[in-house]
Amino acid sequence: MTRRTFFATTLAALPSAAANEPRPILVTAAQALKLRGAGSDVIRASVSEALKAGPWTVTSKRPEHVDATPNDYYSEGPYWWPDPKNPSGPYIRKDGERYPGRFTANRNDLGSLCTAVLSLGMGAWMPGDKSCGAHAARILSTWFLDPKTRMNSNLEYGQAVRGINTGRGTGLIDTVSFIHLVQGVWLLEQAAALDSAVASGVREWFTAFTKWMTTSSKGLDEKKSGNNHATWWTAQVAAYSALTGDAATQATSWDHYRKVLVPGQIRPDGSCPREEARTNSLSYSAMNLDAFAVICRIAEANGVALWKYRAPNAAAVEKAFHYLVPYLLRPDTWKKQQISKFNPDGTVFPGLAAMGLKDDSLVAAWRSLPHGGSPWVQFAAALTR
Questions:
Q1: pLDDT digit string (tens) for 78-93?
Q2: Does the N-terminal peptide bond of residue 350 adopt cis geometry, omega within 30 degrees of 0?
């Protein structure tokens, strides 16, 4: 495939959505038409698995040491450990080292839910599997709509730290995979496969959740965090506002990107010092740029150009992409701290950026990188074929 063919087949015109249509998330309706029949064997396998999985609910497994309602999502910060000098006291932080005894049930189930809904959305739209809609409606209803099993539309108890707090704004990193879920819902609707009452209920839930994200003290703490958490906060607000059709709230994401994220996180040379200060600095740098790329892609799908934005301090996400890509291709050349082995097969920003920037070197990098089998990575791969 030539460079011209690559861009012609992956970048159609990106007009703003009409008022009576679902707003685009990562693809427009016109672009989605090009995905018809594009399902790979890996995607078909994930669809088959999703049809047999779930439903999940936050009410099925509960922590025993927290005064939260059965419908409250609960998780614990991964890098917080019992203090060997004070075993019954407050936990202590070990960056990059995950405590295996933390409560993970709700977080694991949320991830499984999001993986399944994106898979079912791809199955309904790409191969046109009609059975995907009914199963998606069942698992969405269980998690979001049924009063007995639904998750409350907040993260007041996300990433708690024993002995210190019952929840932090940091918990919003747990819900990044909701971006995958709302893209799956969008595809299900494009395929006319999802019950309209279920779709409406899911939108109402995300309207309430986005309001909590943008008004609560924990949500605003995450917005102001100054690192990948703030970038993913912005990506989430952009995605959920697209699903709910809230153009005004979505526009605040673009403003936050221009005024805060780019000038505050990226140096003129393309490095992101807050991520490079971590013990798994390459992993966090890549994770942060994935969030930047998702923001830019959602903006582009909604008629807003962010890919080439340059801040007054000369910071630009384009520079950040080019700064990091060589280390994705050769992780052994990264000289900053990385205590865990880095695997680039879950990183999607080179592919999304290659389309957005029409950049030959990013196209080449994306093609040479391994692509993992997760539905999210496979969806990104399908967009770039």
A1: 999 999 999 999 999 9
A2: no
